[in-house]
Amino acid sequence: MPIEVANTISSVGIFFAGLGLLLLSFGLFWFVSIYSKNK
């Protein structure tokens, strides 16, 4: 595997990991706000 391909894959992986983490924290915040509203 060329080094350029490895760098592209790692940068894309980091990007998607950050995006997933952002979505996860947003979903958790949304769930907590809905849960505390229903209580």
Structure report:
The longest helix has about 35 residues, at about 5-39. The chain is about 90% helix and about 0% strand. It has one helix spanning about 5-39. With about 40 residues, it is mostly helical. The model has no long low-confidence stretch (mean pLDDT about 95). It has one domain. The radius of gyration is 17 Å and the shape is rod-shaped. It is built from 1 helix and no strands.
The percentage helix is over 70%
Count helical runs: 1
3D shape: rod-shaped
Q: Note the gap between the termini.
A: 54 Å
State the secondary-structure class. mainly alpha
Mean pLDDT over the residues:
94
Domain unit count: 1
- Strand fraction equals under 5%
Low-confidence stretches: none
- By DSSP, the count of extended strands is 0
Q: How is the biggest beta sheet arranged?
A: none
Give Rg in angstroms.
17 Å
Helix-strand pattern: H
